[in-house]
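Board notes (copied after class):
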Amino acid sequence: MKAIWEEIKSQISSELPNNTFSLWIRPITFIERKEKSIFLGCPNKFSRNWVTENYMGVIQEKLANALSENCDVVLKVRPVRKEASPPAFIRDSKQLTLPNITRKGGNGRIRLNTGFTFDRFVVGPCNEFAYSASRALAHGAAWNYQSLLILSDTGLGKSHLSHAVGHAILEQKPDSRVYYATAEDFTNEMIFSLKNNRIEEFKNKYRRLCDVLLLDEIHFLSGKEKTQAELGYTLDALTNSNKNIVFTSSLPPKDIPRMSKGLSSRFTSGLVTTISDPDYETRVRILTRKASDQNITLSEEIGDLLARHLKRDIRQLESVVKCLKAKSELLNTKIDLPMAKDVVSCLVSSEWSITPKQIQRLVCKYYKIDPDMLRSKSRKKIYAYPRSIHAYLCRCHTEETLENIGETINRSHSSVLYASEVIARKMETDSKVSREVNFLSKKLEEMKR
C-alpha cells in the first residue's frame, strides 16, 4: 500500500505547481490501512487542515482509481522526532525553513528554473522592451527605477524573464540574497508563519534579509486583504532599502478584482512593461529554438505551417514540437508535412468551429440558468461560477479575442482573463470542477463532428 501511495503522489505532482506539491503533498506519508479506511500522516496540524480543505478531493479520487473502490481517507498528524527537526530559522542562509521547499546550493534560496535564462529567451518586437528592461535591472544599469512590472497573458514569457533576472544577478554576485516566489507561495508561507508563531521570521526574511525579490503572478492576490497588507509593508521596506523588485502579472493591477489601491500603486511605481502575442517571425524563431532543444530539425515548409496556424502562446508552440518528436519516434518515421498538419489539426480549430454563443447555450442548459444572467451584473455564485466556466471554455475552444469573449458576458477583457485563470487553478485542486469542465469540453468536441 505504501508503494501505491507513492505512485499516487507522483501522479498528483504532475497536476500541481512544483512549489505547491513540495509544500503540501510530498510530506504526506502512508501510515496504515484498516478495512476501507486509509490513514495518512501530515507533518503538523496546519498542514493537515490545509490539505483537508484544498486537496482531499483529488487524494480520494486517485486512491479510488488505484484501489478500484471508494475508501475513507483519514489525515493524522504524525509525531516529529526532535533530532530530525530542522532549525526554525537558518541564520547563515537568511531563509525561513518550510517543509520540503526545494533549495538551491547551500544558502537556502528557492531553486530557479535552469532553462529560464536570458540567452534562451527569443527576442522579437513583441517582447523587446520587456527583455531590455529586465537585462538592465539584472546587470545593474544606471536607471531611475527600483522595480519592474512585466504584464502579459499566460504563456508569453514573463516568468522566463523573472527567473532570468535572478540567474543573471546570481552569476555576477553569487552571495546575493535573491528570493523568488509566486504570489501563492508568498501567501501560503505567510499563513504557515502565522499559524506557527513565526511571523517575525517571515518578516525578517523578506524585509531585511532580501536583496532582490522576484514575485510572480501577483493577480493571485485578488481579495486576499491580509496578504496584500503584509506585502505592502514588505515592499515599503525593500524600497526604502533600495532593493530591486520584479513583479509579473496577467492583469494590470488596476484591473485585478479586489486589489487595494495602495498595493496597486506600489506595483506600478517603477517601470511597467508588456509582452504581446509573438508575431510570425518571432514564432518561427521560437519554433526553431524549441526544435533545437528537442534535437530535431523542422523544414522551412513545416516551420511556416506551424507559425501561421499556432498563434496563441509559446507553450502551444513548445507543445507541438514535443508532439512531433514523440510521434516521429513512436512511429519510427521522419517528421514531414502531413504529420505536421495532423498535429496542428489537434491544436487549432477546424473550419467549422465552436462559437461563444454555442458555449453559452450549453453552459446555461447545464447549470439551469437564464442566458441573460450571464450578462448581468449579479455576483451571486449561482451566476458567477457558470460565467467563469463560460469564459474558460471560450478561451479553450474558440479563437475569439478576450474582448470578443467579454462582450458575450458584458465584461472587460481583464475580467475574462481573470475568470478563466481562476477556473484553471480550481481544476488543479477541485475534482468536481475538473469533472464539470471536462464533461462540457467533451460535449463541445462532439458538436464539431
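Comment from the instructor: The chain has 20 helices and twelve strands. Residues 80-109 have pLDDT under 50 and may be disordered.
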